[in-house]
Amino acid sequence: MSASLAHQHNLAQRMDELESRRKQVDELWQKLEAADVELEAQKQAAEKASAKAIKRKQENENLLQRLMSAIKSRNSMRGRLGNMTMQRNRAIRQVETLTAQNREVMEQLKLSTDKLGEVYQQVGVLQTEYDQDMTELAQAYQAVSLEQRVHLPEQLRTLLEQLEREYTGVES
Known about the structure:
This protein is an all-alpha fold. The protein has helices at residues 3-76, 81-142, 146-150, 154-168.
């Protein structure tokens, strides 16, 4: 095999490696975008659960205030004691119901927050893998000689040089 054929063979191998890396980058990018979508959905779910929890808390405070008012009225108006007791008991049941609902919403919020934390971890892992792959790709491009680089399509060469600058800090 002549030197020129060997050179072309090596160049073809490197081009195949670069194409394979590009596909890996595309796949990682798609995973990262999917993780971003999931993250946004979890964030919205957490915000919605938080808003529900705040609303339930306000309702509980309002009912508690009504309960306190009912107790004061009962103490000052003995003739309405039976009616006030009934109102108080109803308010207590409502507070208990809302308290149980509040606990449920808070647990949902905790689950959403935990899920959000997991998604952030997954995004971090994907980002680390992406950065490692980009660094390897940039290092592989550094191994390509200037003579070989000249034969690469300009757009690919520009992209690879940008990766080289960003992930190795070296400019060719």
